[in-house]
Amino acid sequence: MNKNLYLYILAGVSLFVFSAGSSYLVSGLIKNREIGQSISTTNQPSPTSDRSKIDPNLPKNEVCPLNGTKFTKQERDIWETRRPLAVVVENHLDSRPTSGLSTADIVYEAVAEGGITRFMGVYYCAVSAINETISPVRSARIYFTQIVPEYDALYNHVGGAGNCDDPTVDPRAKALCFIRTNKIKDLDQFGLDFKACHRVTNRLDREVAYEHTMACYTDELYKVAAKRGWDNWDTKFVSWKFKTDPSTSSGQDASNIKFDFWPSATDYSVKWQYDLATNSYKRSNGEQLATDNNTGDQLTAKNVVVQLVKETGPVDEHKHMLYEVVGKGKMLLFQDGVALPGTWSKSSPTSRTKYVLDSGKEVQFNPGVIWIELVPSANQILY
What we know:
By secondary structure, the protein is of the alpha+beta class. 16% of the residues lie in helices and 29% in strands. Strands 4, 5, 6, 8, 9, 13, 19, 22, 23, 24 and 26 form an 11-stranded mixed sheet that branches. Strand 5 (106-113) and strand 6 (116-123) form a beta hairpin. The longest helix is centred in the first third of the chain and has 32 residues, at 3-34. The chain starts with a helix and ends in a 7-residue tail after the last strand. 42% of the residues are buried.
Protein backbone atom coordinates (compact mmCIF):
# COMPACT_ATOMS: atom_id res chain seq x y z
CA MET A 1 0.00 0.00 0.00
CA ASN A 2 1.18 3.48 -0.79
CA LYS A 3 2.75 4.94 2.37
CA ASN A 4 0.95 8.28 2.08
CA LEU A 5 -2.40 6.53 1.55
CA TYR A 6 -1.78 4.46 4.68
CA LEU A 7 -1.08 7.58 6.72
CA TYR A 8 -4.28 9.24 5.44
CA ILE A 9 -6.34 6.20 6.44
CA LEU A 10 -4.72 6.05 9.88
CA ALA A 11 -5.34 9.76 10.45
CA GLY A 12 -8.97 9.40 9.40
CA VAL A 13 -9.60 6.51 11.80
CA SER A 14 -7.96 8.45 14.68
CA LEU A 15 -10.07 11.50 13.95
CA PHE A 16 -13.25 9.38 13.93
CA VAL A 17 -12.43 7.75 17.28
CA PHE A 18 -11.62 11.13 18.87
CA SER A 19 -14.80 12.73 17.51
CA ALA A 20 -16.99 9.83 18.65
CA GLY A 21 -15.47 9.87 22.11
CA SER A 22 -15.89 13.63 22.44
CA SER A 23 -19.49 13.45 21.28
CA TYR A 24 -20.24 10.71 23.80
CA LEU A 25 -18.69 12.73 26.63
CA VAL A 26 -20.52 15.92 25.71
CA SER A 27 -23.85 14.12 25.27
CA GLY A 28 -23.37 12.47 28.64
CA LEU A 29 -22.75 15.81 30.31
CA ILE A 30 -25.78 17.32 28.63
CA LYS A 31 -27.92 14.37 29.67
CA ASN A 32 -26.85 14.79 33.27
CA ARG A 33 -27.84 18.46 33.21
CA GLU A 34 -31.15 17.69 31.48
CA ILE A 35 -32.21 15.28 34.22
CA GLY A 36 -31.10 17.76 36.84
CA GLN A 37 -28.34 15.61 38.34
CA SER A 38 -24.81 16.55 39.29
CA ILE A 39 -22.01 14.54 37.73
CA SER A 40 -21.20 11.73 40.13
CA THR A 41 -17.87 11.39 41.84
CA THR A 42 -16.20 8.59 43.71
CA ASN A 43 -14.34 10.98 45.97
CA GLN A 44 -15.19 10.93 49.64
CA PRO A 45 -16.86 14.06 51.06
CA SER A 46 -14.39 16.69 52.21
CA PRO A 47 -13.64 16.02 55.88
CA THR A 48 -15.21 18.04 58.61
CA SER A 49 -12.68 20.78 59.39
CA ASP A 50 -11.09 21.02 62.80
CA ARG A 51 -11.67 23.77 65.33
CA SER A 52 -8.16 25.18 65.18
CA LYS A 53 -9.49 28.72 64.85
CA ILE A 54 -11.38 28.38 68.14
CA ASP A 55 -9.42 28.83 71.38
CA PRO A 56 -10.38 25.84 73.57
CA ASN A 57 -9.50 27.80 76.70
CA LEU A 58 -12.13 30.46 76.15
CA PRO A 59 -15.21 30.27 78.38
CA LYS A 60 -18.45 29.04 76.85
CA ASN A 61 -20.86 31.78 77.87
CA GLU A 62 -22.65 32.55 74.61
CA VAL A 63 -26.12 31.01 74.34
CA CYS A 64 -27.27 29.58 71.01
CA PRO A 65 -30.67 31.16 70.23
CA LEU A 66 -31.91 27.91 68.64
CA ASN A 67 -31.34 25.37 71.40
CA GLY A 68 -29.70 27.10 74.37
CA THR A 69 -26.32 25.35 74.12
CA LYS A 70 -23.38 27.50 75.22
CA PHE A 71 -20.45 28.28 72.95
CA THR A 72 -17.42 30.59 72.93
CA LYS A 73 -17.56 34.21 71.84
CA GLN A 74 -15.44 33.30 68.82
CA GLU A 75 -18.13 30.90 67.67
CA ARG A 76 -20.87 33.44 68.28
CA ASP A 77 -18.94 36.00 66.22
CA ILE A 78 -19.09 33.53 63.33
CA TRP A 79 -22.75 32.53 63.59
CA GLU A 80 -23.86 36.15 63.89
CA THR A 81 -22.61 36.75 60.34
CA ARG A 82 -24.94 34.01 59.08
CA ARG A 83 -28.50 32.78 59.30
CA PRO A 84 -29.81 29.30 60.13
CA LEU A 85 -29.50 26.65 57.45
CA ALA A 86 -32.32 24.11 57.05
CA VAL A 87 -31.29 20.96 55.17
CA VAL A 88 -33.55 18.09 54.06
CA VAL A 89 -31.87 14.75 54.79
CA GLU A 90 -33.31 11.35 53.92
CA ASN A 91 -33.80 8.36 56.18
CA HIS A 92 -34.35 5.59 53.63
CA LEU A 93 -33.10 2.27 54.96
CA ASP A 94 -30.58 2.04 52.11
CA SER A 95 -29.09 5.46 52.91
CA ARG A 96 -28.19 4.82 56.55
CA PRO A 97 -26.20 5.93 58.38
CA THR A 98 -26.76 9.55 57.45
CA SER A 99 -23.98 12.12 57.69
CA GLY A 100 -24.08 15.36 59.68
CA LEU A 101 -27.28 15.13 61.72
CA SER A 102 -25.36 15.10 65.00
CA THR A 103 -24.29 18.73 64.49
CA ALA A 104 -27.79 20.06 63.79
CA ASP A 105 -29.11 22.28 66.58
CA ILE A 106 -32.68 21.13 65.90
CA VAL A 107 -33.94 18.13 63.90
CA TYR A 108 -37.45 17.59 62.52
CA GLU A 109 -38.70 14.20 61.31
CA ALA A 110 -41.82 13.31 59.31
CA VAL A 111 -42.96 10.79 56.71
CA ALA A 112 -42.08 11.59 53.10
CA GLU A 113 -43.98 8.80 51.33
CA GLY A 114 -44.96 5.23 52.08
CA GLY A 115 -44.08 5.43 55.75
CA ILE A 116 -40.45 6.33 54.97
CA THR A 117 -39.41 9.27 57.11
CA ARG A 118 -37.23 12.21 56.20
CA PHE A 119 -35.39 14.76 58.34
CA MET A 120 -34.87 18.49 58.26
CA GLY A 121 -31.84 19.53 60.27
CA VAL A 122 -31.56 23.18 61.32
CA TYR A 123 -27.88 24.19 61.52
CA TYR A 124 -26.55 27.39 63.03
CA CYS A 125 -24.41 27.38 66.17
CA ALA A 126 -22.78 23.96 66.27
CA VAL A 127 -21.42 24.31 62.71
CA SER A 128 -20.08 27.84 63.21
CA ALA A 129 -16.47 26.58 63.21
CA ILE A 130 -17.03 23.39 61.20
CA ASN A 131 -17.39 22.68 57.50
CA GLU A 132 -19.89 19.89 58.01
CA THR A 133 -20.67 17.26 55.40
CA ILE A 134 -24.44 16.64 55.23
CA SER A 135 -25.69 13.63 53.29
CA PRO A 136 -27.78 12.33 51.68
CA VAL A 137 -29.67 15.54 50.93
CA ARG A 138 -33.09 14.97 49.36
CA SER A 139 -36.12 16.80 48.02
CA ALA A 140 -38.34 19.33 49.76
CA ARG A 141 -41.73 18.53 51.26
CA ILE A 142 -44.43 21.08 52.00
CA TYR A 143 -44.61 20.58 55.78
CA PHE A 144 -40.86 21.17 56.22
CA THR A 145 -41.11 24.10 53.82
CA GLN A 146 -43.82 25.64 56.04
CA ILE A 147 -41.46 25.48 59.04
CA VAL A 148 -38.49 27.15 57.33
CA PRO A 149 -40.01 30.69 57.44
CA GLU A 150 -40.19 30.70 61.25
CA TYR A 151 -36.37 30.67 61.21
CA ASP A 152 -36.04 32.84 58.09
CA ALA A 153 -33.54 30.12 57.20
CA LEU A 154 -31.61 29.19 54.11
CA TYR A 155 -33.27 26.10 52.61
CA ASN A 156 -31.04 23.39 51.14
CA HIS A 157 -32.64 20.46 49.28
CA VAL A 158 -32.56 18.59 45.96
CA GLY A 159 -35.62 19.67 44.03
CA GLY A 160 -38.98 18.95 45.58
CA ALA A 161 -42.65 18.28 45.21
CA GLY A 162 -44.54 20.42 42.76
CA ASN A 163 -43.83 23.56 40.77
CA CYS A 164 -46.77 25.93 40.60
CA ASP A 165 -47.76 24.77 37.10
CA ASP A 166 -47.47 21.03 37.75
CA PRO A 167 -50.97 19.52 37.31
CA THR A 168 -49.89 16.12 38.69
CA VAL A 169 -49.22 17.44 42.21
CA ASP A 170 -51.98 18.39 44.64
CA PRO A 171 -51.82 22.19 45.18
CA ARG A 172 -51.56 21.64 48.95
CA ALA A 173 -48.37 19.61 48.47
CA LYS A 174 -46.50 21.96 46.11
CA ALA A 175 -43.34 22.66 48.06
CA LEU A 176 -41.43 24.29 45.19
CA CYS A 177 -44.36 26.59 44.48
CA PHE A 178 -44.49 27.57 48.16
CA ILE A 179 -40.76 28.34 48.13
CA ARG A 180 -41.10 30.69 45.18
CA THR A 181 -44.32 32.46 46.17
CA ASN A 182 -43.10 33.00 49.73
CA LYS A 183 -39.61 34.10 48.67
CA ILE A 184 -37.81 31.56 50.82
CA LYS A 185 -34.03 31.88 50.59
CA ASP A 186 -33.63 28.84 48.42
CA LEU A 187 -30.44 26.78 48.12
CA ASP A 188 -31.87 24.10 45.86
CA GLN A 189 -28.97 21.91 44.76
CA PHE A 190 -29.97 22.36 41.13
CA GLY A 191 -28.86 26.00 41.34
CA LEU A 192 -25.54 25.38 43.14
CA ASP A 193 -22.04 24.62 41.94
CA PHE A 194 -20.00 21.47 42.44
CA LYS A 195 -18.27 22.77 45.58
CA ALA A 196 -21.50 23.27 47.49
CA CYS A 197 -23.18 19.96 46.62
CA HIS A 198 -22.25 16.93 44.55
CA ARG A 199 -22.79 13.21 44.26
CA VAL A 200 -20.54 11.04 46.42
CA THR A 201 -20.94 7.41 45.43
CA ASN A 202 -18.67 5.86 48.07
CA ARG A 203 -19.87 7.61 51.23
CA LEU A 204 -20.90 4.24 52.67
CA ASP A 205 -19.12 0.88 52.64
CA ARG A 206 -21.53 -0.45 50.02
CA GLU A 207 -23.03 0.57 46.72
CA VAL A 208 -26.34 2.43 46.93
CA ALA A 209 -28.80 3.84 44.41
CA TYR A 210 -27.88 7.18 42.84
CA GLU A 211 -30.59 9.12 44.68
CA HIS A 212 -28.91 8.29 48.00
CA THR A 213 -25.60 9.99 47.15
CA MET A 214 -26.01 13.78 47.32
CA ALA A 215 -23.65 15.51 49.78
CA CYS A 216 -23.65 19.22 50.64
CA TYR A 217 -21.15 21.23 52.70
CA THR A 218 -22.06 23.93 55.19
CA ASP A 219 -19.17 26.32 54.54
CA GLU A 220 -19.80 26.24 50.80
CA LEU A 221 -23.54 26.75 51.26
CA TYR A 222 -22.83 29.79 53.42
CA LYS A 223 -20.50 31.17 50.73
CA VAL A 224 -23.32 30.90 48.19
CA ALA A 225 -25.69 32.62 50.62
CA ALA A 226 -23.21 35.48 51.12
CA LYS A 227 -22.94 36.00 47.36
CA ARG A 228 -26.73 36.25 47.18
CA GLY A 229 -26.87 38.75 50.05
CA TRP A 230 -28.39 36.29 52.50
CA ASP A 231 -25.57 36.19 55.02
CA ASN A 232 -26.72 38.37 57.94
CA TRP A 233 -29.70 37.20 60.00
CA ASP A 234 -31.69 40.37 60.62
CA THR A 235 -34.99 38.78 61.60
CA LYS A 236 -36.53 39.34 65.04
CA PHE A 237 -36.22 35.69 66.02
CA VAL A 238 -38.09 34.55 69.12
CA SER A 239 -36.10 31.93 71.01
CA TRP A 240 -37.76 29.18 72.95
CA LYS A 241 -37.17 29.20 76.71
CA PHE A 242 -34.28 27.22 78.17
CA LYS A 243 -33.49 26.06 81.66
CA THR A 244 -30.95 28.15 83.50
CA ASP A 245 -30.40 25.57 86.25
CA PRO A 246 -29.69 21.83 86.07
CA SER A 247 -32.75 20.78 88.04
CA THR A 248 -34.61 17.84 86.52
CA SER A 249 -38.25 17.83 85.48
CA SER A 250 -40.94 16.04 87.43
CA GLY A 251 -43.43 13.89 85.58
CA GLN A 252 -44.30 10.37 84.52
CA ASP A 253 -41.30 8.10 84.00
CA ALA A 254 -40.21 7.92 80.36
CA SER A 255 -36.90 6.09 80.23
CA ASN A 256 -37.87 4.28 77.05
CA ILE A 257 -39.95 5.81 74.28
CA LYS A 258 -41.28 3.91 71.28
CA PHE A 259 -43.60 4.84 68.43
CA ASP A 260 -44.33 4.17 64.76
CA PHE A 261 -44.95 6.71 62.06
CA TRP A 262 -46.75 4.05 60.01
CA PRO A 263 -47.32 0.64 61.66
CA SER A 264 -46.65 -1.06 58.32
CA ALA A 265 -43.19 0.52 58.01
CA THR A 266 -41.30 -1.02 60.92
CA ASP A 267 -37.88 -0.09 59.50
CA TYR A 268 -38.83 3.48 60.44
CA SER A 269 -40.10 2.79 63.95
CA VAL A 270 -38.33 4.96 66.51
CA LYS A 271 -36.96 4.25 69.95
CA TRP A 272 -35.41 6.79 72.31
CA GLN A 273 -33.65 5.42 75.39
CA TYR A 274 -32.84 7.70 78.30
CA ASP A 275 -29.23 7.83 79.48
CA LEU A 276 -28.98 9.11 83.06
CA ALA A 277 -25.23 9.74 82.87
CA THR A 278 -25.61 12.32 80.09
CA ASN A 279 -29.25 13.29 80.78
CA SER A 280 -30.05 12.70 77.14
CA TYR A 281 -31.97 10.33 74.90
CA LYS A 282 -30.23 7.94 72.49
CA ARG A 283 -31.93 7.13 69.20
CA SER A 284 -32.61 3.82 67.48
CA ASN A 285 -34.39 3.37 64.16
CA GLY A 286 -35.95 0.09 63.06
CA GLU A 287 -34.33 -1.78 65.97
CA GLN A 288 -30.87 -0.51 64.94
CA LEU A 289 -28.77 2.16 66.63
CA ALA A 290 -29.01 5.43 64.71
CA THR A 291 -25.51 6.80 64.15
CA ASP A 292 -23.80 9.64 62.31
CA ASN A 293 -21.57 8.36 59.52
CA ASN A 294 -19.21 11.33 60.01
CA THR A 295 -18.36 10.35 63.58
CA GLY A 296 -19.71 6.86 64.18
CA ASP A 297 -21.49 8.14 67.30
CA GLN A 298 -25.09 7.37 68.19
CA LEU A 299 -27.54 10.22 67.61
CA THR A 300 -28.74 11.82 70.83
CA ALA A 301 -31.08 14.59 71.95
CA LYS A 302 -31.49 16.52 75.18
CA ASN A 303 -35.16 17.06 74.33
CA VAL A 304 -37.55 14.95 72.27
CA VAL A 305 -40.84 16.55 71.26
CA VAL A 306 -43.53 14.30 69.82
CA GLN A 307 -45.72 16.81 68.00
CA LEU A 308 -48.99 15.11 67.07
CA VAL A 309 -50.19 16.38 63.70
CA LYS A 310 -53.13 15.75 61.38
CA GLU A 311 -52.22 13.36 58.56
CA THR A 312 -53.86 13.57 55.13
CA GLY A 313 -53.07 11.51 52.06
CA PRO A 314 -51.79 10.27 49.81
CA VAL A 315 -53.24 13.26 47.97
CA ASP A 316 -52.02 12.76 44.39
CA GLU A 317 -50.49 10.28 41.95
CA HIS A 318 -47.05 10.85 43.50
CA LYS A 319 -48.40 9.64 46.86
CA HIS A 320 -47.55 12.93 48.57
CA MET A 321 -48.60 13.24 52.19
CA LEU A 322 -49.77 16.28 54.14
CA TYR A 323 -48.93 16.90 57.80
CA GLU A 324 -50.49 19.89 59.52
CA VAL A 325 -47.71 22.01 61.06
CA VAL A 326 -49.70 25.24 60.92
CA GLY A 327 -52.54 25.02 63.40
CA LYS A 328 -52.60 23.43 66.84
CA GLY A 329 -52.62 20.07 68.52
CA LYS A 330 -51.29 17.93 71.34
CA MET A 331 -47.67 17.17 72.09
CA LEU A 332 -45.45 15.24 74.49
CA LEU A 333 -42.13 16.60 75.70
CA PHE A 334 -39.57 14.06 76.84
CA GLN A 335 -36.68 15.39 78.92
CA ASP A 336 -34.83 14.36 82.08
CA GLY A 337 -36.27 10.86 81.74
CA VAL A 338 -39.92 11.96 82.15
CA ALA A 339 -42.89 12.77 79.94
CA LEU A 340 -44.59 16.16 80.01
CA PRO A 341 -47.89 16.49 78.09
CA GLY A 342 -49.00 19.74 76.51
CA THR A 343 -50.06 21.47 73.32
CA TRP A 344 -48.43 23.06 70.29
CA SER A 345 -49.62 25.96 68.13
CA LYS A 346 -48.42 27.83 65.06
CA SER A 347 -50.66 30.49 63.52
CA SER A 348 -48.83 30.93 60.19
CA PRO A 349 -45.71 29.67 58.38
CA THR A 350 -43.71 32.69 59.56
CA SER A 351 -44.84 32.49 63.20
CA ARG A 352 -42.87 30.59 65.83
CA THR A 353 -44.22 27.22 66.94
CA LYS A 354 -45.17 27.45 70.62
CA TYR A 355 -45.11 24.56 73.08
CA VAL A 356 -47.13 24.90 76.29
CA LEU A 357 -47.44 22.31 79.06
CA ASP A 358 -50.81 21.23 80.43
CA SER A 359 -49.93 23.25 83.53
CA GLY A 360 -50.18 26.39 81.38
CA LYS A 361 -46.45 27.11 81.49
CA GLU A 362 -44.42 27.52 78.34
CA VAL A 363 -41.97 24.67 77.81
CA GLN A 364 -38.43 25.18 79.09
CA PHE A 365 -36.04 23.04 77.09
CA ASN A 366 -32.80 21.61 78.36
CA PRO A 367 -29.91 23.37 76.58
CA GLY A 368 -28.88 21.01 73.81
CA VAL A 369 -30.20 19.25 70.73
CA ILE A 370 -33.98 19.39 70.25
CA TRP A 371 -35.55 16.65 68.14
CA ILE A 372 -39.11 17.23 66.94
CA GLU A 373 -41.07 14.20 65.76
CA LEU A 374 -44.08 15.07 63.55
CA VAL A 375 -46.18 11.99 64.30
CA PRO A 376 -49.74 11.33 63.00
CA SER A 377 -52.16 12.35 65.75
CA ALA A 378 -53.92 8.97 65.86
CA ASN A 379 -50.72 7.08 66.67
CA GLN A 380 -49.90 5.59 70.06
CA ILE A 381 -46.78 6.76 71.88
CA LEU A 382 -45.43 4.13 74.27
CA TYR A 383 -43.26 5.05 77.26
